[in-house]
Design goal:
Length: about 240
């Protein structure tokens, strides 16, 4: 069953996700850091560090949102980072952020579909995705597109929410994610569906070994998974 933000809406998941992120774009960065107690910043740093040895020069950040992961990737000193997202609202917030920080000469944010990337084969040294793959309408198709545009020897790094398994953190996390987070998100963002969709989409996502298996099925090799903060999120790495 496909999890969507607006259950009464008859449009596809892709259109609904774009609509949802357009709706919350003005509060997204604040809510991201607030609802994760700021831990998400550390997760991004750790994920980007996994590319340090590769030293990528040309990078793609899929589902870039407001560009936080792309900005973090600047620590690798790449020549160019391109970010793509299906939400123009999120991209506008990101472009303003880049202009304010004078980073728009290195990072370019484009409207684009993760399942139909507008790039030639073997273009990027590395592709990153932070908290975006679970929003793909067709997960395997999106990963195949990422595989297509990565150079041979290049890497993909995916940072995504996962589900803790150990007692009592599993139960505490579940309560927070299902009951506390949606209420706070609704108050601050005024979009009830967005923060109800979040725990539902995480629950439906094939995390851990299941996701590694899907990466392998589309052609990636050397797949690895690193669990973070008691299993709240995970870093997945793979090579072409």
């Amino acid at each position: 069953m496909t999890v969507v933000p607006y259950k009464e809406d008859k449009s596809g998941k892709k259109e609904q996700v774009a609509k949802m992120f357009d709706s919350i774009s003005h509060r997204y960065d604040f809510l991201n850091h607030f609802l994760s107690l700021g831990i998400d910043k550390g997760w991004r740093k750790k994920a980007i560090k996994s590319l340090r040895e590769l030293s990528p020069k040309v990078m793609l950040d899929v589902a870039t949102g407001t560009g936080d992961f792309a900005i973090q990737a600047l620590t690798l000193k790449p020549e160019k980072i391109t970010g793509v997202d299906i939400s123009e609202g999120m991209l506008e917030v990101g472009r303003k952020k880049l202009r304010d920080r004078k980073l728009d000469h290195t990072i370019e944010l484009l409207l684009g579909d993760s399942e139909n990337l507008p790039f030639e084969e073997n273009k990027f040294d590395a592709v990153t995705v932070a908290f975006g793959v679970r929003n793909f309408e067709n997960l395997e198709r999106g990963l195949k597109e990422i595989y297509r545009v990565v150079k041979p020897g290049g890497m993909v790094v995916v940072l995504e929410f996962s589900q803790p398994q150990a007692f009592p953190f599993k139960q505490l996390y579940s309560f927070y994610f299902k009951f506390i987070l949606p209420k706070i998100g609704r108050i601050v963002s005024s979009d009830k569906a967005a923060y109800t969709y979040l725990p539902e989409s995480v629950a439906a996502f094939p995390d851990g070994d299941k996701f590694l298996s899907i990466l392998g099925s589309v052609g990636f090799k050397k797949m690895q998974c690193q669990s973070l903060t008691f299993g709240i999120s995970s870093i997945y790495t793979a090579a072409k």
